[in-house]
Write a structure and sequence with these properties.
Elements lengths: L1 H24 L3 E2 L4 E2 L3 H30 L7 H18 L6 H28 L3 H34 L1
Antiparallel strand pairs: 1-2
Helix pairs in contact: 1-2, 2-3, 2-5, 3-4, 4-5
């Protein structure tokens, strides 16, 4: 029975990694300094289901696979680190917890402010050489939209659709 559980986990993780790649690479708006999309959703669901380590590794793997299959520019390992930290953060905040709007807000706030605004802006600064203050306005607007969208969608998708199925 234990073996079936591991196979089931592997299948679910593979499906969510594929969904993350599709949502990130094909269903998002990309510019050189920001990406708007729904790739966070499968990562948050992995965090809810499997915890910080597995969701972090899955998102990092999804970032690597997505970059190899559908490159959008030069590969930079800092973004893979951000992907791992994002998945881990969702896992730390959401794993084995009641998925409420307050908890989703906390996870989204941390992910958007620490990793998307802070770390990703630093990576872009390293890559482009543009001053951080030049990059910040567009990235601040992005997180102003991202936090409410993530806060709304994470509990909605989990509680209304996936909780019953998985």
């Amino acid at each position: 029975m234990q073996n079936n559980s591991k196979i089931r986990q592997l299948i679910i993780m593979g499906l969510f990694i594929a969904l993350e790649i599709i949502l990130t690479r094909f269903c998002s708006i990309n510019t050189p300094i920001l990406r708007l999309g729904f790739g966070f959703l499968p990562v948050a669901m992995l965090g809810i289901l499997f915890g910080p380590l597995w969701s972090g590794m899955a998102y990092a793997l999804g970032d690597l696979i997505g970059m190899m299959i559908f490159p959008t520019g030069a590969y930079f390992p800092g973004f893979t680190l951000t992907a791992f930290l994002t998945g881990a953060t969702f896992g730390i905040i959401l794993y084995k917890k009641n998925i409420t709007y307050q908890r989703a807000f906390l996870a989204s706030l941390l992910v958007c402010c620490l990793w998307n605004l802070g770390l990703d802006t630093f990576w872009l600064y390293i890559m482009t050489g543009k001053g951080i203050l030049v990059l910040l306005p567009a990235r601040l607007i992005k997180i102003a939209f991202a936090i409410p969208v993530q806060t709304l969608l994470i509990p909605l998708v989990w509680n209304k659709y996936l909780k019953k199925v998985i």
